[in-house]
Amino acid sequence: MPGEDGALARGLFAPITTTDALAELTSGRAWVRAMLDAEVALATAEERVGVIPAGSATAIAGAADTLEVDPDDLGRRARLGGNPAIPLVAELRARVDGPAAEWVHWGATSQDVLDTAAMLVVKRASAQIGTDLLASCAACAALSERHRMTLMTGRTLLQHALPITFGLKAAGWLAAATEVRKALEHLRARLPVQLGGAAGTLASLGGEGFEVLEAMAGELGLVVPTMPWHTNRVIVAECASVLGTLAGVGAKIARDVALMMQTEVGEAFEPAAPGRGGSSTLPHKRNPVGASAVSTAHRRASALVAVVIGAMDDEHERGVGGWQAEWETLTTLLCLAGGVASQVRETLEGLEIDSEAMAANLARTGGVLLSERVVLELAPALGRTEATGAVQRAASRASASATTFAEELRADPTIAAHLGPDDVARLLDPAGYLGSASAFIDRALGAHREG
What we know:
The protein has about 450 residues and is mostly helical. The chain has helices at about 5-10, 20-25, 30-50, 55-65, 70-75, 85-95, 110-145, 165-190, 210-220, 235-260, 290-310, 325-350, 355-365, 370-380, 385-400, 405-410, 415, 420-425, 435-450; strands at about 150-155, 160-165, 270, 350-355. It has 19 helices and four strands.
């Protein structure tokens, strides 16, 4: 809303797909704070190296600490120069008493301030995202362990395929979540400071430019880049890609839960709470509202990743519109990815499992989904093609009549010549055809515990 900071938190639609914490960490005030932090770190570094007079950094830091800026007003004033660093620097310089005011923003360009601020916003917001993501991994690990042998139907192309366990499904979620968690941690450790001056040479700082750059990075806890990255936007694209991938991982988990919540399936449910999942007209409904919010966030995030990558073709040493396109895009991506991480965490930590429904759905096809196992048992004697044909015919007869798949297998002379009743019973036991499921669960758990 006009005149309100933190509109993401107080708006009509945005709160559905993010959290108040992420909205605050990426708000206009958060960006202003990050820009001021960049200015203070620059002055501190320059004073330490001897580029500006002693005492200047203290005066600048004091003014920055007390400076109150309305982000919406700052944005309107930014129209003239094309970025909010210009009016903010003017405000800060006016607030600093004495000769130290002349040393505000010394040797830097607006993009130095905004790029550094962007990295600070990403670092601060992603810390919260990482906390929720780690908790989601822990919840997946617990589900994997608890339901290691909880049998259920494995589905491919939405059809019954082979028996699996819910522990294996949760381990699949865990493996993906662990990979994106590690990617986020790696990204956070690589976020660089930006300081290049007008054209990336730092000529304005004489021979002390790189020393100032190193000191500024140390002040902010950011990495010293190989060189100024005004038109090398790889790190920004990586930020967007990791956040978009995180949203995609969360969407896969949420989609699985939503499918298991279907009335005809009923195998798992999002946490219950008063008013959660309700319908405006149907009192019996328990809708997958968490999955809906996650899916919404993912669809928007995937499009925003393309915006960042599409903005990488900045011209020469400073771009016309490319880096400017990143500010709101990164802000929204952080909010959406953070909303996904929070919602998936809530879902996984409170997920309700109906193992009886899983067993009932597994039994619905009368053992037909073990047909592969029967074929593999018969193949050495009959050959793969003849074995497949015989089993397919038995399955078709069972589907078209009141008989069971087991009865048709036992009644088929070709099959019965090689498999007795006990063999058929053994082959149609889903617990005996899980392959390396337990080993894969252990591998996913191991990757998670490695940190």
